[in-house]
Structure formats: C-alpha cells, structure tokens
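Appendix B. Chain record.
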Amino acid sequence: MWRYIGLALVGIVVVVSGFSLLDVSGGGDVGAAAVLESAEISTDNYRAVDNPNYEWNFPADHGPHEDYLTEWWYYTGNVATEDGRRFGFQFTVFRRAILPDEPEQDSEWRSRQIYNGHVTISDFETEVFFKEERFGRGAAGLAGATADPRYRVWLEDWEVIALNDDATEIRMTATVEDAAFDLTLTRVKPIVLQGEDRNGLSSKGGEASNASYYYSITRMETAGTITIEGTTYDVSGLSWMDHEFSTGALPEGTRGWDWFGLIFDDTTEVMLAQVRAEEGAGEGTMFGMFVDENSESYYLPVGAFQMEPLDSWT
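Structure tokens predicted for this chain:
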C-alpha cells in the first residue's frame, strides 16, 4: 500500500514550484505552470521508524509527524437509522512529504507536503456506493493537519476536528456527489498501540526499515446524519480509527495490502492485515491484534490466522 500511495503522490509533485497570488488589478490573464519532479525519492533526510521506545504523547501524536515521509489518518464505520437502514462510511487523509525541509516562503502556495483524501459512503438498502478522491497541497489553508490548539485534519471542506482538548470526541464532516455525512465520534476504549511488542512499532516486512508507527482506536460511538441524494437520515453506530506514519516503504515485490477492522457485539475487536507479495517474491507478512472486553490487547503473529479469498468483484 505504501508503494502505491507513493507512486500516486509523486505524480503530482507540482507544489514544489507553486505560484503566487498576483496583483492583476491592471487586467490580463494569470497563468501557472506545473513542474513534475523525478519519481526518485530519497529517504536520507527523513526520520526512520527504528525506535521501539518511541515516547507516545497524546493528544499531540494525533497530529502530523512531518519528519517522516508518509502518514495517514483512517476512519471507517457502520451506522444505521432507528428503523434499521444501514450505511457504511470511510474517511482517509494521507500526507506525503516531497521535501525534507520547508521551502522558502516567497509564495503562499509553496509547501513540502501533499495531502490525498478518500471519502466513501455505502447505502446498503439501495446498494449504491458513493466515493470521491482529492489531492491538495498543504498550503494556503487548502489542506493540513495539526494538534495545536486542538487535533484537526482537513482537505478543503472535508474535516476531522476535536471537540475537546484531549480529542476523545471528534466531529467528522464530508460531502461527495449526491451524499454527505456529519458525524460525532466518541472514544469508548483506550488507544491501542500496534506491533508485536504492543509499543506502536509495527513491522511490515523483513527489513528494519519496513515498519511504521501505528496505533488504533478500536471502538468509537458514532452518531449524526448521513445524507443521500437530498434525504437526511439520523444514524448511530460504531467506528474505528487508525493512524500511521513512516519513512520506509513496503518491501520490494509487494503486490498489495489487505486490512480488516472487526468490531463485535461482545465489546471485543480484531485487526487483521496481510501484506501480499508478488508471485515468486516470498510469503508476504501477516499480523493482527485482538482487544478484549477489558481493553487488553494481544498481538496476533503469523500463523495465528489465515485469509482465504472466497470471491471477487469489479
């Protein structure tokens, strides 16, 4: 997944050049040229994910970690109306650094960060899937992430923002074509640090560099509205939040990534993931986490579970 995210974002490294807002009071057209940079990315000047004793500090660590190359915030959930009409949603924002240091600030458009967002809404009754993808530079208020004075991540009018200082309650809003949501998510279980030693250092491959810092909020009570083609529904349910940041990419020969976050009625949760390798490139990597009803977490190593594809769809 890291590999494909990187390739997609490198293709729009136009923000390195940017352009300034100009005084055009005298009339005439304003033009801007995009400059595409090389796809070769050096990780030399970014921090490595190599410290098993990383000192987590919340709510500050909900915010951005711009010394690392790649980062994402991921929310997904299932909600329903009082009479049982079901919806699903997903809200993801990726940050990708394109320069290790801040550029000269002679233009309000210059930035060393690209943001990419995905929003989806599923209407199970009509079997319609609404989706949108956006890209934006981390400049001129267009996109960004912060933990000061409160946690906030945004891409234009898509936004996640904390409603209290410790970010245990957040509001999430987004609009796509013919659909929208306005939801409040409240944390009901402690933060779970992922990884074999449950310290947040999560290995994604055989090399030490194939890792991310990774934590989850596995259960968040969710309430608000979902709007479908002009009709607004009051909904409630449960959501999951993941946040990861890293500099190292997935191993060479990586084909893809499967991830499952399962929230059960008995107040337990399971995360299962596998990094899929291309044919002949090895076995890939599998890992997971079980969180019991008392919020105790247990790492699930390779061999603790299996994934078997049963069907496919387009």
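Further analysis of this model is presented in Appendix C.
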